[in-house]
Design a protein that fits this description.
The structure is a homodimer.
Chain A lengths: L1 H6 L2 E6 L4 E6 L5 E7 L11 H9 L9 E7 L13 E2 L2 E2 L17 E5 L3 E3 L6 E3 L2 H11 L5 E5 L4 E7 L2 E8 L1 H11 L3 H4 L11 H16 L4 H14 L7 H22 L10 E5 L1 H13 L4 E5 H15 L3
Helix pairs in contact in A: 3-10, 4-8, 6-8, 7-8
């Protein structure tokens, strides 16, 4: 542990609704150590954040001196540690540090800054993000004048339009949460079984079911509610479906294709035919989006979610004058 | 209680997944008494059905003699009391009794028949119903040569095309379940609060929010996932929303409009412009569909759900030669 404290330059933290992830970094932003916990904004009062942070990163701290800690995510929400008010779009992404706030602290070794989220009110297209803006900043850190479309798949999938490093507008889709509720809580759970918790697109039958579902729903998006019940009916009546676990996996792949496909169809003019998309997120979820985008004629590039958040927090860290 | 046993001609039962409702009827199908319980197919083993039925209707039974009991719904499912196999469409609705089954019974005073559901496999448009076919039969009992479109709103909303008293095809939408999951289990629950459990379309602001949402989603159905998150964002950012309980009610009305509107848009060619719709169900839910259909230029007629199920079970009861 001494080795970490000696080489530690700063600490990056992504503190979400339900968990926190922290990285110890050296002066060249190389990762010295990782840590985390399952305590996010939903389970913490403002007074508990410092204790929880020190429980997770305490071993990295030197006995003396001051360590910069850069935090993105829900810790900066109104219900979090201390509010870092949303920046309205359009916003430069290399400028998040400007609106960061310092929470109250007892330990003199910590110098914490909470980064703001983004909000959008133009034309009644209300939207918010908190955490994803830092991943977008990580993308811009790699390519400062980037113009294009980025997608961050997840519970609340984010689509952002970037113009010369500025976020001009963005859209959030409830895709991941919708899939999870339908797969785990609706009548469909009886048909999907445990397949919902496994990544299954390595199976050719599942890949085909996923891609077919993407095509079907993009051709007729309003049939989503009837195609959902159709999964249950197919489980009861379709004798071409495989038996056993493969059956649930096939139906789960189809549910995923319907839900991701509906999201893509809904981007409309914000996803013009043939436009490439930069995907930021974990590998298996991005695999799914690559497949869906490819079915609709879009190329995609990828940036790993952890790399993106570290690059974005690093950009903010430099902006604080480190 | 003696009065009921003396005048009792037969008993009607609608036994669903999560509850049962029973009616004591005289020879002219006048309701002598109602009873019910919260024990449906999901909480009963086959051996428990007779005991539960007698717990609910026991007081109505005469000491001697035999009472016909006509049952529709999930009691006839494979996981129910005894399976009454689905009838494939197209099916005449005055003919459900033909495929009824008799479950095993200990009490000689009971003569029980479980009615079948309907299934559809044509062209891969897999679908099933169990219980709603009896309400449709009740509609046909009133008008034997009926041709038109009927909708039964609910957890799993059913749309049926009738031609001269025959169901030719039908479609189930997961609408009610989708609304319930989003309103009670998703991130939106923080914005809707308790409004979800109250019928709120008597408020002019809520009516307007509901109708606007119906129009918006039918114009752009694929934007459903982003408009869902938009409800959350509006709660955080839209300062034109009312405060307090009225705020949750307004957002709940909008969620309902988006979800019902998506269902209507998805009917596509099965709901041709200007075609009237017969709604079967409870009053407050049908009110909502009347409003949505009216916004899209469709007239609607209504049949009360209890009247429909009693007329449908009565039709089957006569077919057994009563």
């Amino acid at each position: 542990m001494m080795a970490i404290a000696e080489r530690l330059a700063w600490i990056a933290v992504d503190w979400g609704s339900s968990n926190l992830r922290a990285w110890a970094l050296d002066t060249r932003d190389q990762v010295l150590a990782r840590a985390g916990s399952e305590r996010g904004m939903l389970s913490l009062t403002p007074a508990e954040y410092e204790t929880e942070l020190k429980r997770v990163i305490g071993e990295w701290l030197p006995a003396m001196g001051r360590v910069p800690v850069r935090v993105c995510g829900m810790a900066g929400a109104r219900q979090g540690w201390r509010e870092a008010a949303y920046l309205p779009v359009p916003t430069r992404l290399d400028d998040l540090a400007r609106a960061a706030v310092a929470p109250p602290l007892d330990d003199p070794r910590l110098e914490v800054r909470l980064l703001p989220g983004l909000c959008q009110t133009a034309g009644g297209a209300f939207d918010v993000m908190r955490g994803e803006e830092t991943q977008l900043a990580g993308l811009v850190a790699q390519e400062p004048a980037l113009t294009g479309l980025a997608c961050l798949p997840g519970t609340h999938a984010k689509w952002a339009r970037l113009e010369a490093g500025v976020v001009t507008r963005f859209t959030t889709c409830l895709t991941g949460e919708l899939y999870g509720l339908l797969a785990r809580r609706s009548v469909l759970r009886h048909s999907l079984g445990h397949a919902v918790d496994k990544d299954n697109l390595s199976d050719p039958g599942c890949r085909e079911a996923f891609v077919c579902a993407v095509r079907e729903i993009t051709a007729a998006p309003a049939t989503y509610p009837s195609r959902l019940f159709g999964l249950r009916a197919a489980d009861l009546l379709d004798d071409t479906l495989p038996q056993g676990d493969a059956r649930g996996a096939r139906l789960a792949a189809r549910l995923s294709g319907l839900t991701v496909g509906l999201e893509l169809a809904g981007m409309g003019n914000d996803l013009p035919a043939g436009e490439p998309v930069t995907l930021i997120g974990n590998e298996s979820l991005c695999d799914r989006y690559v497949l869906a985008l490819d079915a609709l004629g879009h190329e995609s590039h990828r940036l790993d979610g952890e790399a993106a958040v570290l690059a974005g927090l690093g950009l903010a860290h430099r902006a604080f004058g480190a």
